[in-house]
Amino acid sequence: MMTSVDTELIRILGDPLRLKIVTLLARETLCTTHLVDETGAKQTNLSNHLRVLREAGVVETEPCGRFTYYKLKPDVIAQLAGQFADLAESARCAADNKRACP
Questions:
Q1: Residues of the chain with pLDDT under 70
Q2: Does the N terminus or the C terminus of the chain have fewer Cβ atoms within 10 A?
């Protein structure tokens, strides 16, 4: 049973704006302009966050004319959710394990 969680991905998704972007992209594929409108973030700030998400493999790009659309990669989120489910199951199994104090 795996009990480790991808700490780098947690750090990346721990940023409020990145989590907002991921939440929005879970509903639909959006271009940068849509994400600026939805988040209120400046375009340069948003682009930096999208770059981090893309490099981490959380989102992928889809060129469309002069726009770039962003799409969430659900398998990455599902894998992270699975890691947390494994961790929860490990905690359930270990609930009665208590190490004696020296």
A1: 1-4
A2: C
